[in-house]
Design goal:
heterotrimer, A alpha/beta, B alpha+beta, C alpha/beta, A: alpha/beta, Rossmann fold, 2 domains, seven-stranded mixed β-sheet, C: 3 domains, three-stranded antiparallel β-sheet, 10 strands, globular
Chain lengths: 298, 358, 354
């Protein structure tokens, strides 16, 4: 995976990356590779290139941003980019088979055409996180948006402090990004990965139990640290309680949200939490910001 | 700007002329109901009727419109953005409709993302306003700082004079061009307004403003935003929701409600992506593919709508997303009244003020 | 259709569920609307039902500052019944709220007009709510007033209150002026042709049976529609359906629309696409009309709430007329224990497909 200059300073051209031809017109894209993530086959990662566009040059994004992905003739869905901007050969979307568009996507093979509108939304504050220790807490497919930042941090390793990753899924079958959680990340300098599953199987030698319980057991200190979390609502709820107990302030907890979206550009109205739109003001919020909003999140 | 006088016959001829060159939308009557809708003859235009039930917004934000057209037959999909075409005239826009356009402009045109469909329609729509001939009890425009004779935002403004003729004011350059064009065509009954017609128009405007004064006493926006800031978890929303039947009347008749859905339709290799009106009162609105719904009951959905009108939009854009047209008040099947919500919030704000100050 | 006669009585060998067998005889009778003692008696009745624990909730109406628009209200305790109101502006059909109480552990009282009561009975017959869970407080309805008609009669003046007499109403404006107009000029359209103003089933009834207003206007309009060529009829409905804004108010108020998940709310497949085109508008309107036919109680609440004036009652009444002609069944909601001929099968059913 090549490193690009643009990725090191991705803000350089972002402001110009607005929609020129049409706000709702996607850029043509092609699936290069499809990787099965989970045993239950409900999560697949799609490696995608943009036709005639260079990633990192024509399409510049930051960790935590999203894009609207079109399956033409079926529809469009908001997906978080699970790849790191430091990779310039392709984009990755890790997709759970949930609705009409995603289930059609799951049936697509390399070579199939998609449309991509983006990048959209805000991003993890990767700049202000520099020099800090990072605690990632993820559950199931919720690791996808975190993965973008984790790989970005690993590719810029010297700028960040210690990295701890707590990740859980329902079963060993449901763990995503296995080569990264078991090989790549644990080998990275000053990086620890703690994996747990709700219930193991005959071959599982690792930890069993829920993520919030594992968090409590590991009790990572809040000093000089920021927690970045994403997962199912029930996990988020208990992780937030756990972090509070460990002494994390609301400003030290960052999450990324998911809502039903259609336009992705703050017009269609449906993804609001209070007066903020998840599509343009989010998806990344810290807990202090969320608590100040009226709305239904978690 | 210029003031003209036009007889109703003259106006009729003007509309007939317009029909040849633009899509004309105007108030018309359908089965006893006044609606804004496309007209194909000047005789359909009904300017003296009540505030049309269907608001003006569909000229810039149609119930459904195509965004993309796709040809999926080849190896590479051919996808193109569809631009609205042609010229439009909307005749008889009420001051509340003008205010609503200004709110919609902020949503669709402000900031980094300009909506191309809306931009095209807006730029190609001539707006001819009408001073409200009367003021209903459900009208509460004055609460929002304007009145039934306020033509701001229009290209031209018509005011019906007691004799039956119309006073026609040009308010923009574009409006002036339109009048000049009509004069060139030699419309009989279109003349310069003399001093008499001018003062008759001012008298008529003053008359309807006095009528509107009655509502100003009853409804106020003072403290509404602040009151709502503190009552998100109030049991009031559950009480209100008990009565709400979760239909889309208030949103679809609202001149400023603008939420939409984007859908796909495919027949063989041809497909289209279109948007259509949607409402936050329907449960599907926020239902996610996995089955989770952050607004699972009417309580959350109704509260979201009322907050969007009276609080969220203020925090985002600094003004209300309600313009006081009264359509939701008049047509709610179970008489949910946004003015009462405002009063409730204002009272809460006063109570908060008291507790803070002493 | 001469042999097409059958009754909608329960099919032999197929017992009716227990909740459909309750007696239909009203037990008590109170003063009529218009009687000075009426409102006090109604409030007393509701208060004691709550106080004595016969019901745990009462669905009725409450006064608001706008006397033309009382609001639907839910009374949970006897103390709250002080501002319970019933007058000629209680247009909203409240029977549908019973569905919100499917899992409520208690009895619910409903204050209903003739048309609303049919909705309650239909919900019972459609097995949406058991008869013994509902206390039907019926009112023999003298006809309801359309606030819009009153306001238009008053012109620019704002209406303060309306005093109804037997044949005329007095409109009092905020300025204190008074005007008298004939009652019929301000009654709602549905009341002008209402043949069944009395609750067919009730536990308490207020007032003596009303005659209703016999008008054949609707059936004349239907006859006119029947005489049209199919192209003309298509054009007629197109003109109306074109205005439909898809607010679903007609469905949401309809006592015959009691599905827990409506087909139009289904997302996959999304049977009704969001696009407003002719095919979709027809599909929505006609599907709904056909689905409620044989169970539509003729309350015309759909027609009342439609904000764009689609003459829904013509469609529903036409279908009712056809069902009645084919099966000779009573008007839905007028009798307990009757199931719609269209939701059951009978070997004696007329076979008109030959």
């Amino acid at each position: 995976m090549g490193r690009s200059e643009a990725a090191a300073r991705p803000e350089a051209a972002v402001s110009d990356a607005g929609p020129a031809a049409g706000l709702y017109l996607p850029s043509p894209a092609t699936i290069q590779e499809v990787r099965l993530e989970t045993g239950a086959a409900d999560v697949r990662t799609f490696k995608v290139t943009l036709d005639g566009q260079e990633i990192g040059k024509d399409f510049i994004y930051r960790p935590g941003q999203c894009a609207m992905v079109s399956v033409f003739g079926v529809g469009e869905v908001m997906l978080s980019l699970s790849s790191s901007p430091t990779w310039t050969t392709h984009l990755e979307f890790s997709v759970k088979n949930a609705g009409k568009v995603t289930s059609t996507m799951h049936g697509l093979a390399p070579g199939a055409r998609l449309g991509v509108r983006g990048p959209l939304g805000n991003w993890f504050p990767y700049e202000s996180l520099q020099g800090k220790d990072l605690l990632f807490v993820g559950g199931g497919i919720g690791l996808a948006p975190l993965r973008s930042l984790i790989n970005y941090v690993i590719d810029n390793r010297d700028r960040y402090g210690k990295v701890e990753i707590i990740y859980g899924a329902r079963s060993p079958q449901d763990l995503c990004f296995k080569s990264e959680i078991f090989e790549t990340w644990p080998k990275a300098p000053d990086t620890e990965v703690f994996v747990t599953v709700d219930r193991g199987d005959a071959d599982w030698k690792g930890k069993e139990g829920f993520v919030p319980a594992y968090l409590e057991e590991l009790a990572p200190s809040p000093v000089g640290k920021v927690a970045v979390i994403c997962g199912p609502p029930i996990m988020i709820k208990f992780v937030l309680q756990g972090l509070e107990k460990l002494g994390y302030s609301d400003e030290q907890v960052i999450t990324t949200l998911e809502m039903r979206m259609k336009c992705g550009v703050g017009k269609c109205g449906r993804c609001n939490i209070g007066h903020k739109y998840v599509c343009v003001d989010g998806p990344v919020f810290n807990l202090a910001q969320l608590r100040a909003l009226k709305g239904e999140f978690v | 700007m210029a003031e003209k006088l036009v007889t109703s016959e003259g106006l009729f001829t003007m509309v007939e002329k317009l029909l040849g060159r633009a899509q004309v939308t105007a108030p018309r009557e359908e089965n006893g109901i006044a609606v804004f809708g496309p007209v194909n003859s000047a005789g359909q235009v009904e300017l003296d009727g009540p505030l049309p039930v269907i608001p003006e917004k569909s000229v810039v934000f149609p119930q459904s419109e195509t965004l993309l057209r796709m040809d999926l037959g080849g190896e590479v999909p051919k996808v193109e953005a569809v631009e609205p075409e042609g010229e439009q005239v909307i005749l008889g826009v009420r001051p509340c409709g003008l205010q609503a356009f200004a709110r919609l402009d902020r949503v669709f045109l402000e900031g980094a993302f300009v909506d191309p469909q809306y931009r095209r329609r807006r730029d190609h729509t001539l707006i001819i306003a009408l001073t409200c001939p009367t003021v209903k009890r459900s009208c509460f425009c004055r609460a929002f700082g304007y009145g039934p004779s306020d033509g701001s935002g229009a290209d031209l403004q018509l005011t019906r004079l007691p004799g039956g003729s119309f006073h026609l004011e040009t308010l923009t350059e574009r409006g002036g061009e339109f009048v000049a064009e009509m004069e060139k065509e030699g419309i009989a009954g279109l003349t310069d307004a003399g001093a008499e017609a001018g003062s008759a128009a001012r008298a008529e405007k003053a008359r309807v403003e006095r009528l509107a004064e009655r509502s100003a006493a009853a409804v106020s926006t003072e403290g509404v935003v602040e009151g709502l800031d503190g009552m998100y978890d109030d049991p009031y929303w559950a009480q209100l929701a008990e009565r709400c039947i979760s239909c889309g009347i208030c949103t679809y008749l609202c001149p400023t409600c603008h939420c939409f859905d984007i859908c796909e339709k495919a027949r063989g290799p041809e497909a289209e992506r279109y948007r259509c009106w949607d409402t936050c009162l329907f449960s599907n609105y926020t239902l996610m593919a996995g089955g989770a719904n952050p607004r699972p009951t009417v309580r959350e959905r109704l509260r979201n709508r009322l907050y969007h009108k009276l609080n969220f939009f203020n925090h985002r854009y600094g003004e209300f997303l309600c313009v006081g047209c009264g359509r939701c008040v008049e047509h709610c099947p179970t008489n949910i009244d946004i003015r009462k919500v405002m009063a409730k919030a204002a009272a809460r704000s006063r109570a908060q003020g008291v507790s803070v100050n002493g | 259709m001469s042999e097409a006669i059958k009754t909608a009585a329960p099919v032999e060998g197929e017992p009716m569920p227990a909740e459909l067998k309750t007696a239909e005889i009203p037990t008590r009778r109170g003063p009529a609307p218009g009687d000075p003692e009426f409102l006090g008696a109604l409030r007393d009745c509701c208060r004691s039902l709550l106080a004595e624990g016969h019901v745990q909730r009462i669905i009725a109406y409450r006064e608001t500052p706008d006397s033309l628009r009382p609001e639907v209200a839910f009374f949970a305790s006897p103390e709250e019944t002080g501002d319970l109101v019933w007058d000629l502006f209680c247009n909203t059909n409240i029977c549908k709220y019973l569905l919100d109480y499917r899992t409520f552990e208690g009895r619910i009282g409903v204050v209903v007009k003739g048309c609303d009561a049919r909705g309650v009975v239909q919900l019972i017959n459609d097995m949406q709510i058991p008869r013994d869970k509902v206390e039907i407080i019926g009112i023999c309805c003298p006809g309801q007033i359309d606030p819009a008609k009153v306001e238009s009669a008053a012109g620019e003046a704002w209406v303060s209150r309306v005093v109804a007499g037997p044949d005329s109403v007095e409109i009092v404006t905020e300025e204190g002026t008074e005007m008298r107009v004939p009652l019929e000029s301000v009654l709602t359209d549905r009341c002008l042709s209402c043949r069944k103003p009395n609750p067919p089933v009730a536990d308490v009834v207020f007032g003596e049976d009303q005659k209703g207003r016999i008008s054949d206007e609707v059936f004349e309009q239907i006859a006119e529609l029947e005489r049209m060529s199919s192209a003309e009829r298509d054009a007629f409905w197109n003109r109306h359906f074109e205005r439909c804004i898809r607010c679903f108010a007609c469905r949401n108020v309809c006592p015959a629309c009691s599905c827990t998940k409506c087909v139009f709310d289904q997302q996959e497949p999304d049977w009704l696409a969001g696009e407003r085109n002719q095919a979709n508008q027809h599909f929505f309107q006609i599907t709904r009309a056909v689905h409620v036919s044989g169970r539509c109680t003729g309350c015309e609440e759909c027609d009342r709430v439609c904000p764009v004036g689609i003459p829904l009652r013509l469609m529903n009444k036409k279908l009712w007329k056809d069902v009645k002609d084919l099966f000779d069944s009573p008007l839905p909601g007028t009798k307990l224990g009757v199931r719609s001929p269209l939701v059951m099968w009978d070997p004696k059913d007329a076979d008109s497909f030959e």
